[in-house]
Write a structure and sequence with these properties.
The protein is globular, with a radius of gyration of 23 Å. Strand 6 (209-213), helix 9 and strand 7 (232-239) form a beta-alpha-beta unit. 42% of the residues are buried. The chain is an alpha/beta fold. The chain contains 11 helices and 20 strands. The chain has a 9-stranded mixed beta sheet. A 4-stranded mixed beta sheet has the order 19-18-17-20. Bound molecules: adenosine-5'-diphosphate and zinc ion. Zinc ion binds next to loops.
């Protein structure tokens, strides 16, 4: 494939030049953050670092880390580095109350984020001759807005479908000749199956590429999607905290994602000691946003386990590559694209009068996540009258839906039937084998 770049100078910049650019941006960013965000100033003062100590990217390790707990502490405005009057957008993570993170954007922040997505679309072969169907959710979720903006920047004819209504997705895809599809990999697989059921073959639809991310997916799933849709499927990575999708994107080589490191500097650390690990070693991925204005995060711990590589890439890009995330350092699950923490389920159980004896079982059937929760009744609650059980299960499932935003299937089970463990309780059985 002929290589096209959206911002060639940056995407193919030499390592030395990139380091220089990153260093200049970092020095400015640290000063901006120190001067405007008391929360950061305190963290830096506690660590005894001043903006004057940071002369370039090699000094980054002197700065304190920032964690999701800090983001929650500072909710909603505590990390804001620009006046609200200069902000034009808010997005939020899929997590729910207590776990929700809100991110703010100035127009410049939106621009650079959209540039990142435009790089991803271009790397997937997108040009102004393409019709780009954006089937990520629109709204607070970053997926829709990010790829939508990127698609505009590339000059694609943009189909802002949002997710859902699969019949209509297929109709538009076919009638309006979509050539690029952007959505979560599980939704892409679902669209593929539906197309097959309706008697379409890959030759009947003009799609040539897909940009899929926001959740883990396997190589096997990639091959399956590529075959059912007749496309090349590209991975894209991001998180709301750093802006959204487009922090890293895949190129024609499909061996990891190039990090847009002129905007987001990546480090790999030992999650236990915080020590920075050399290239090629596995650890926790940490990002510093080098030039975001409104919500700039310095050394943000993503809790994604990952590896970085500077091996030469056949696409000509010199941007460092990150592997597919290989797991998490916390217990967060991503079910149907929504972040779920076992602790949230526990909170609901306690509130509803149950003991925290439960097990979460997640699987993937026909490319859709299934989500079951087995909950033990205590002796007083126990009943074997089917209609009563059903009612109790429905009530509990409703309470979980309110907390999580997605619907589990709840099974109430007899007292003492959830296996006890002597060590750490096995609360989650994830059969999806995504890693
Ligand atoms: P978003 O709203 O962009 O999905 P969240 O903050 O809700 O962002 O979730 C971000 C997390 O989603 C990441 O930390 C990572 O664990 C996961 N994620 C995003 N993209 C990918 C991807 N391409 N592959 C694997 N995991 C991903
Ligand atoms: Zn490449």
């Amino acid at each position: 494939m002929e290589q096209r770049y959206y911002q060639k100078d940056i995407e193919t910049m030499s390592y030395e030049e990139m380091k220089k650019l990153q260093s200049e941006k970092l020095v400015k960013q640290v000063k901006h953050v120190y001067d405007n965000v008391p929360y950061y100033r305190n963290l830096m003062d506690e660590k005894g670092v001043k903006p004057e100590d940071i002369h370039g990217i090699d000094d980054l390790h002197l700065l304190p880390f920032l964690s999701k707990a800090d983001l929650r502490d500072a909710y909603p405005y505590g990390l804001l580095a620009k006046p609200l009057s200069e902000c034009v957008r808010i997005h939020s993570t899929s997590g729910t109350t207590g776990r929700r993170v809100v991110a703010f954007y100035t127009q410049k922040d939106v621009d650079l984020w959209e540039d990142c997505c435009a790089r991803a679309i271009t790397a997937a072969g997108g040009t102004n001759d393409d019709v780009c169907q954006v089937a990520y959710g629109y709204g607070l979720f970053t997926g829709g807005a990010g790829l939508h903006g990127g698609s505009h920047k590339v000059g694609c004819l943009t189909l802002p479908m949002s997710s859902g209504n699969t019949e209509r997705q297929i109709q538009f895809m076919s009638d309006l000749g979509a050539t690029i599809l952007c959505c979560t990999p599980s939704y892409a697989a679902y669209i593929g199956e539906t197309l097959k059921e309706q008697g379409y073959t890959p030759d009947d639809i003009p799609l040539k590429a897909g940009i899929f991310g926001a959740e883990p997916w396997t190589e096997e799933m990639r091959r399956q999607i590529e075959a059912t849709l007749g496309i090349k499927a590209y991975d894209i990575y991001g998180l709301t905290e750093t802006s959204g999708p487009g922090v890293a994107f895949e190129c024609s080589e499909q061996t990891g994602m190039h990090v847009n490191e002129d905007h987001f500097y990546a480090e790999i650390i030992d999650p236990d000691t915080g020590e920075v690990l050399p290239e090629g070693e596995k650890g926790e991925l940490v990002f510093t946003s080098l030039d975001k204005e409104a919500f700039p995060l310095l050394r943000y711990r993503t809790r994604d386990i990952c590896v970085l590589s500077r091996k030469k890439c056949s696409c000509g890009r010199t941007l460092v590559k990150m592997a597919k995330p290989m797991g998490r350092t916390d217990d967060m699950l991503i079910i149907r694209g929504v972040n779920v923490f076992p602790s949230q389920i526990e909170t609901v159980l306690l509130k509803e009068g149950y003991q925290p004896n439960y097990q979460i079982i997640v699987d993937r059937v026909n490319n859709n996540d299934t989500f079951e929760v087995n909950v033990e009744m205590n002796a007083d609650q126990f009943t074997d009258i089917a209609s009563e059980l059903l009612m109790m299960e429905k009530k509990l499932a409703g309470a979980m839906k309110t907390m999580l935003g997605i619907n589990p299937t709840v099974h109430l089970v007899p007292p003492k039937s959830v296996a006890r463990s002597e060590g750490k309780a096995v609360r989650v059985i994830d059969k999806r084998k995504l890693i």
